[in-house]
TrEMBL record:
<feature type="domain" description="Mandelate racemase/muconate lactonizing enzyme C-terminal">
    <location>
        <begin position="147"/>
        <end position="244"/>
    </location>
</feature>
<keyword id="KW-0479">Metal-binding</keyword>
<dbReference type="InterPro" id="IPR029017">
    <property type="entry name" value="Enolase-like_N"/>
</dbReference>
<dbReference type="Pfam" id="PF13378">
    <property type="entry name" value="MR_MLE_C"/>
</dbReference>
<dbReference type="GO" id="GO:0016836">
    <property type="term" value="F:hydro-lyase activity"/>
</dbReference>
<protein>
    <submittedName>
        <fullName>Mandelate racemase</fullName>
    </submittedName>
</protein>
<dbReference type="InterPro" id="IPR029065">
    <property type="entry name" value="Enolase_C-like"/>
</dbReference>
<dbReference type="InterPro" id="IPR013342">
    <property type="entry name" value="Mandelate_racemase_C"/>
</dbReference>
<dbReference type="GO" id="GO:0016052">
    <property type="term" value="P:carbohydrate catabolic process"/>
</dbReference>
<keyword id="KW-0460">Magnesium</keyword>
<dbReference type="Pfam" id="PF02746">
    <property type="entry name" value="MR_MLE_N"/>
</dbReference>
<dbReference type="InterPro" id="IPR036849">
    <property type="entry name" value="Enolase-like_C_sf"/>
</dbReference>
<dbReference type="InterPro" id="IPR046945">
    <property type="entry name" value="RHMD-like"/>
</dbReference>
<dbReference type="GO" id="GO:0000287">
    <property type="term" value="F:magnesium ion binding"/>
</dbReference>
<dbReference type="InterPro" id="IPR013341">
    <property type="entry name" value="Mandelate_racemase_N_dom"/>
</dbReference>
C-alpha cells in the first residue's frame, strides 16, 4: 500500500506574458492551483489546474473543505478508484467546471506519483504512442492585434520552424476577420497550417456564414464557433463546411464529448485536462475520439498536454502558449517544429518552489 498522508493546496497568480484577447474576454491572470500529495512510502506528487481570472479561490475551497479528506488514508496507486471516490463526494456540483478543476488538481498529482513510482515519464506510462508531435502557435494571434502585427507574429513562428498558427476571430464583421486571415495566408504561403478560434462568440447562422468566408484559406480547423452546449448547431455547421469543426476546451465531462462524437459534430477534439477533471478522464476522451476516427489537439496546458498528446494514437498537435514559465525551471523541448515529451519520471515539470512562494496568494 502507498497510503496518502497529506494533501497540500496552494494557489499562485501568474501574469500572462503578453496581452491575450479573444472575442469574449481578456485573459486577466492565470490563477494556478497546485496540489501536493504525500504518501507514507516517502513519495510526493504535484498536480495542478487553473482558471483565467476568476474562480481560483473557489477551487481551493472545494479542495480544502471536501476533496482532501476524501483521499487522505487511501491507497495512492488506485487512481481510477480515487477519481470515482472524489466524483461521488462532489456529485451535487458535478459535472461543472469548478469541480472538474478541483478533481484535476488531485488527479494529476496522483498520476505524477504513479509515474514516479514506476520510474517512467507520463507520455510513456499513459500509452507511448508518439515520440514527438507538431506544434502550432497561439500566442501571436490575439484579436486585438492589427493585421500587420498578426502577419509579423505568424511569420516569426514560421521562421522558428513551428508547423502552424491560430488566429482569433470574432470581429464585428466577417469581412474584417477574412481580411486579416487573407493577409496572413498570403504571407505564409500554402504549406503552413492556419487555424481560427471564435471562442463561442457566434450564432449558428453567423458561424455558417463566416465559415464560407474562411474556406478559401484552407484552414486546419474552426475552433469553438458556438457555445459548447449547442451540439445541434455545431452539427449543422459541420455539415455545411469543408473546414473541420474543433470543440472541447469548454466541455467538462466525458459524456459531453460522447454526445458530440456520436452526433458527428466534432471534427477535432480539444479536451483540456484541467477542465475535464484530470488525466484519468482525459485519456478516456482521447481514446473515444480515436474510436470515432477523430484527432485530438488539446487546449492550452502545453507543459502537460505535450506528454498526453504523445501518449495516445489520436494525438495530432500541441498548442504553443506558455503557461508556467514563472514558476518552473523546465522548458519544453521543441525540435524541427515538433515537441519532444519529457523523459524524466513523473509529469516532466520541474517546479520552482522559490518562485511559487513569491507568487503564492493562498
Amino acid at each position: 500500500m502507498s497510503k496518502i498522508v497529506g494533501v497540500d493546496v496552494r494557489m499562485v497568480h501568474i501574469e500572462p506574458e503578453v496581452l491575450r484577447t479573444d472575442a469574449v474576454q481578456t485573459f486577466v491572470r492565470q490563477e494556478t492551483v497546485l496540489v501536493t500529495v504525500s504518501t507514507d512510502d516517502g513519495l510526493t506528487g504535484v498536480g495542478y489546474s487553473y482558471t483565467i481570472g476568476t474562480g481560483g479561490s473557489s477551487v481551493v475551497a472545494l479542495l480544502r473543505d471536501h476533496l482532501a479528506e476524501v483521499v487522505v488514508g487511501q491507497d495512492a496507486r488506485n487512481v481510477e478508484a480515487l477519481w470515482t471516490r472524489m466524483l461521488y463526494a462532489t456529485r451535487a456540483t458535478a459535472f461543472g467546471v469548478l469541480t472538474s478543476l478541483a478533481l484535476a488538481a488531485v488527479d494529476t498529482a496522483l498520476w505524477d506519483l504513479r509515474c514516479l513510482r514506476a520510474g517512467e515519464p507520463l507520455w510513456r506510462l499513459a500509452g507511448g504512442a508518439h515520440e514527438r508531435l507538431p506544434v502550432y502557435d497561439t500566442e501571436g494571434g490575439w484579436l486585438h492585434l492589427s493585421g500587420a502585427e498578426l502577419v509579423e507574429n505568424v511569420t516569426a513562428a514560421q521562421r522558428k520552424g513551428l508547423r502552424g498558427a491560430k488566429l482569433k476571430v470574432g470581429k464585428p464583421s466577417g469581412a474584417e476577420d477574412a481580411a486579416r486571415l487573407a493577409a496572413v495566408r498570403e504571407a505564409v504561403g500554402p504549406g503552413f497550417e492556419l487555424m481560427v478560434d471564435a471562442n463561442q462568440s457566434l450564432t449558428g447562422a453567423e458561424a455558417i456564414r463566416r465559415a464560407r468566408l474562411f474556406e478559401p484559406y484552407d484552414l486546419a480547423w474552426f475552433e469553438e464557433p458556438l457555445p459548447a452546449e449547442d451540439v445541434d448547431g455545431h452539427l449543422r455547421l459541420a455539415r455545411s463546411t469543408t473546414i473541420p469543426v474543433a470543440v472541447g476546451e469548454s466541455m467538462y465531462s466525458a459524456g459531453h464529448f460522447a454526445a458530440y462524437l456520436s452526433a458527428g459534430a466534432a471534427g477535432i477534439v480539444q479536451a483540456d485536462v484541467a477542465r475535464v477533471g484530470g488525466i484519468t478522464p482525459w485519456l478516456k476522451i482521447a481514446h473515444a475520439a480515436e474510436a470515432f476516427n477523430v484527432k485530438v489537439a488539446p487546449h492550452f496546458l502545453m507543459e502537460l498536454h505535450a506528454s498526453l498528446a504523445c501518449a495516445v494514437p489520436a494525438g495530432m498537435y500541441v498548442e504553443h502558449i506558455p503557461q508556467l514559465g514563472a514558476i518552473t525551471r523546465s522548458e519544453l523541448r521543441i525540435e524541427d517544429g515538433c515537441v519532444v515529451p519529457p523523459e524524466a519520471p513523473g509529469l516532466g515539470i520541474e517546479w520552482d518552489e522559490d518562485a511559487i512562494e513569491d507568487l503564492r496568494v493562498a
